[in-house]
From TrEMBL:
Belongs to the polysaccharide synthase family. Its main location: membrane. InterPro entries: Poly_Biosynth_Transport, Polysacc_synth. It comes from the Bacteria. This is PST family polysaccharide transporter. GO terms for cellular component: plasma membrane.
Amino acid sequence: MKKLDTSLSKLDLFAVYLSYAFRYLYPLVLIPYYGRVLGAGGYGVVLAGTSLSNSLWLFVNFGLSTVGGRELVQTDQAGHHDVVFREHFTARLVIAAPAVVIGLIAAFRSDVISSVPYAPFFIVAGGILAAFNLGWYFSSTGRVRTNMAIEVMGLALSLMMLFVFIHKPSDVGLVFPLTFASGLLQTGVSYWLVRKESTGWLVPLRAAFALIKRSTTIFLYNGTAILMLAASSYILSLMASPAEVGAFGISERLIAAALGVMAPAAQVLAPKVMYLVAHDEAKANWFARRIFAVFLVGAIAGVILTEALSDWLVPLAFGQEFRPAVPILNLMVFVLPISVCTRVLGLYFILPRKLERLLLWTGFASALVNLLVAIPLASYRGAEGMAEARLIGETALLAMLIFGVSRAGLLRGFIGNGNAVSLNARLARWRE
């Protein structure tokens, strides 16, 4: 099995971003297509279903991918890899059982989703299936490019089938079966490639529950703050019309696609930072600050371009029916720089130092803030209120993370103060 390379591999980053370019072009191509073919109401159904499906994915994943990746990079013993694989598969099965029941109840509770025949079943099945994705396993065992190739294959297949079969508003019922079919093939290929690396699939239930317990803190961070955000369109579907869901959902998906640019870097760099924290903390901090600077500049540029171009670009891309999404997008775009700060702090400074308790209380508290403001704002102001709640929740999370990092004594490392590193050494690191 390939050993993880702890150097900053530009080849890996280039390969990852080349393949991930397709992943983020995928929604940018598909969203206008959905908007023009399905209309605001039909696209609202798709967004509500996708929101619920993604929420189930995050729930069943339960922070397991992060814990599994950390466990894999901390050992080179092949036997331990087998144990980690089986523990994680069993733990996902355990969580999936209640998730199916919760998902079906939630799907039928939404008039927007339940209005489409059979959609609730494919939405729930797709969310559960996504949680069994092996991207974390490939990335943490030094096979980033393999994972990217599988993902691009699945996205290409999904895009092709959607373009072939979705041509009019009444075709909205085909969207979820088609995306489920492409996800099933993608997952099948992943498990076929690792079929000889494990002695089986299951471990005793006590081992699975022990893993779930170890992952609980990370879940309460990702599964409260991020899960709450993933469920925004579904929550809005309980209180607003499909057209309102569509207006909010377009903005939310565009912001999510922009933030998703950070994901491939995390797959390549997060394991390296986790390793370096234990061996060369100054270099780990330098990597993290480097990542922060690049993405923050990109987020600020995104805000400027959105404010300047959204008024004519949204109607041009999606049609005049989606003009109400413009003010929502102009508000939500400010989530970009705030989210860059929260994600870098959490993934590259806090998590590698195993300060899960800090993530626990900040994630839980910010999710509570988000929920408390989302329900009244969405009830009275619709899509715009949900956008305001998203911005308030993200700002609260950043404030609490900065406070926690300062209390933990990590703030100096984050901003670079107190590091005895010469200017020439710093410039050399930027050229690495």
